[in-house]
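Database export, one record per block. Field names are fixed; values are copied verbatim from the stored entry.
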Amino acid sequence: MATKLYVGGLPYSTKDNELQEAFAPAGTVVSAQVIVDRMSGRSKGFGFVEMSTDEEAQKAIEMWNGKEFGGRKLVVNEARPLGERPPRRDFGGGGGGGRW
């Protein structure tokens, strides 16, 4: 079964194919996607890589977690489903200062 990995700390110039090429030595990369901002189209500095087996995913974590890629230190771990993350802190309202 494929295992999805979170890859944080990516250089903002990283493309999907570069991410796939970087993880290929660990095994078969099923998919690799750099997450981009919908409005600007710019990278958000993180992405996801799906490896074909749990063993290859573990090898990829060992190979890249804490290592430098494009001048930045990567954080690589098994991706967690949305429901398992802590809730975001929302302070409500909008920003913007105004005069009193």
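Remark 1: DSSP finds two helices and six strands in the chain.
Remark 2: Strands lie at 3-8, 29-36, 43-51, 68-69, 72-73, 75-78.
End of record.
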